[in-house]
């Protein structure tokens, strides 16, 4: 999606990913031989150096990268690395990220460092209560890396499930809704934010996004945007950031986590906003004027297309059906294999009202591979 936006601006993109036919490489072909894509892992220092030698500006779409190498190449890439490697370092360890946010006065719920021992989990539960959310500090995504301890008898199971990874514990947040805001930050530090959206998760994976958030308390969107913008202001470097938050019954918001990149909760911006999160990411890292973040339709929803089985045909059949729904835009990611729990694509639905969006979404949810509840 970033590559598709770049091609409209005549910006050449060189991709580092495994395989000659990696999804992003299917979107843009190198225009000159010296711009050929790099075949390798985004954790491989030699490959990151090879990429850095080819480009004017380097950015990431995933935070699980080798930060030390990004720091090493930062001075050699003419327009730098965005967001800054120091930001990626802070964010990629969820415990360090939470400490950073708390130190800067951002509203985060209580959390504490723990050891991977039954005794340490008992101590955390005594302090933070049950249920207790255990999280892997690093390499977590789509809920892989979280374990909810509802009863202390589960402590051993939790350690086994999370493996021998560094962990920390968070107090359980009894939120009424999960919400998110995409924030864009320019090289000079100017920030602006997209509308607040409601995110609905299923099995810890983002399932649906509704834009804009509707809340009875009309002050919620402005407060959530202020919290999100303030949090991103504490970080260094340009680009878009996805800020995940919890909305509480009393209307207050807690920050959950920040992604230093275009975010799943912002996919709807492609069809529903004046400038997509991808185009604004490019504008930000290239020091071009930032685009308007306003909605250009009254209402939108985004439905993730998550693999339910190894059968790619289920995904393509669903995509064909989605093409019959007015206002629906289908995005398939070109991933080679379908797997249970893998994000294979998404569908964005826009309409003139919330009611119309819901009416258009209904047949899609009914036909969704793996069901919708
Ligand atoms: P990931 O990296 O997988 O996105 P998150 O830390 O965002 O991990 O957790 C995934 C989901 O787990 C969240 O979207 C939310 O639904 C739930 N969750 C995370 N932290 C808490 C918490 N402290 N209390 C209650 N639910 C939580
Ligand atoms: Mg998350």
From the structure above, extract its key features.
13 helices, globular, four-stranded antiparallel beta sheet, phosphoribosylaminoimidazole carboxylase activity, binds adenosine-5'-diphosphate, metal ion binding, lyase, purine biosynthesis, alpha+beta, nucleotide-binding, binds magnesium ion
Plain-language structure description:
Pathway: Purine metabolism; IMP biosynthesis via de novo pathway; 5-amino-1-(5-phospho-D-ribosyl)imidazole-4-carboxylate from 5-amino-1-(5-phospho-D-ribosyl)imidazole (carboxylase route): step 1/1. This is Phosphoribosylaminoimidazole carboxylase. The chain is α+β, with helices and mostly antiparallel strands and 373 residues long. It contains 13 helices and 17 strands. Strands 9, 10, 11, 12, 13, 14, 15, 16 and 17 form a nine-stranded antiparallel sheet that branches. A four-stranded antiparallel sheet has the order 5-8-6-7, sandwiched between helices. Strand 9 and strand 10 form a beta hairpin. Helix 1 crosses helix 11, helix 3 runs parallel beside helix 4 and helix 4 runs antiparallel to helix 5. The longest helix is centred in the middle third of the chain and has 14 residues. It is globular. The relative contact order is 0.11. The site of adenosine-5'-diphosphate (ADP) has 17 residues, from strand 6 and strand 14. The site of magnesium ion has 2 residues, from loops.
Topology:
Layout: H1 2-8, E1 16-17, H2 23-27, E2 38-39, H3 45-52, E3 58-59, H4 67-74, E4 81-82, H5 85-92, H6 94-103, E5 111-114, H7 118-128, E6 132-136, E7 146-149, H8 155-162, E8 167-171, E9 177-185, E10 191-193, E11 197-202, E12 205-211, H9 220-233, E13 239-247, E14 253-259, H10 269-272, H11 277-285, E15 299-306, H12 312-322, E16 328-332, E17 343-351, H13 354-367
Parallel strand pairs: 1-2, 3-4
Antiparallel strand pairs: 5-8, 6-7, 6-8, 9-10, 9-11, 9-13, 11-12, 12-15, 13-14, 15-17, 16-17
Helix pairs in contact: 1-11, 3-4, 4-5
Adenosine-5'-diphosphate (ADP) is lined by residues 109, 133, 135, 140-143, 146, 170, 172-173, 178, 201, 204, 244, 256-257.
């Amino acid at each position: 999606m970033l590559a598709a936006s770049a091609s409209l601006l005549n910006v050449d993109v060189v991709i580092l990913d495994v395989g000659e036919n990696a999804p992003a490489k299917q979107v843009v072909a190198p225009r000159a031989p010296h711009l050929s894509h790099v075949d390798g892992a985004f954790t491989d220092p030699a490959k990151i150096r090879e990429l850095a030698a080819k480009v004017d500006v380097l950015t990431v779409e995933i935070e699980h990268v080798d930060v030390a190498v990004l720091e090493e190449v930062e001075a050699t890439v003419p327009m730098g690395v965005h967001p800054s490697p120091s930001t990626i370092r802070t964010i990629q360890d969820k415990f360090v990220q939470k400490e950073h946010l708390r130190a800067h006065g951002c509203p985060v719920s209580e959390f504490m460092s723990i050891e991977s021992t039954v005794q340490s989990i008992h101590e955390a539960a005594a302090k933070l209560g049950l249920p207790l959310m255990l999280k892997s500090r690093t390499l977590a995504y789509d809920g892989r890396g979280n374990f909810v301890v509802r009863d202390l008898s589960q402590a051993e199971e939790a350690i086994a499930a999370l493996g021998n990874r560094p962990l920390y514990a968070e107090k359980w947040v009894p939120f009424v809704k999960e919400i998110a805001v995409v924030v864009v930050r320019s090289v000079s530090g100017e920030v602006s934010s997209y509308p607040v959206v409601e995110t609905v998760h299923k099995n810890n994976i983002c399932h649906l996004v509704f834009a804009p958030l509707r809340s009875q308390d009309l002050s919620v969107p402005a407060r959530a945007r202020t919290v999100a913008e303030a949090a991103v202001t504490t970080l260094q470097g340009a680009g878009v950031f996805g800020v995940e938050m919890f909305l509480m019954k009393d209307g207050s918001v807690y920050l959950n986590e920040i992604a230093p990149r275009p975010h799943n909760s912002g996919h709807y911006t492609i069809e529903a906003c004046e400038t997509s999160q991808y185009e604004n990411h490019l504008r930000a890292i290239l020091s071009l004027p930032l685009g308007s973040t306003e909605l250009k339709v009254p209402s939108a929803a985004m439905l993730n297309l998550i693999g339910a089985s190894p059968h790619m045909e289920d995904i393509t059949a669903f995509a064909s059906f989605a093409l019959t729904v007015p206002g629906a835009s289908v995005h398939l990611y070109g991933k080679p294999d379908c797997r249970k729990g893998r994000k294979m694509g998404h569908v964005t639905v826009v309409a003139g009202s919330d009611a119309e969006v819901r009416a258009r979404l209904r047949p899609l949810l009914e036909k969704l591979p793996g069901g919708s509840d």
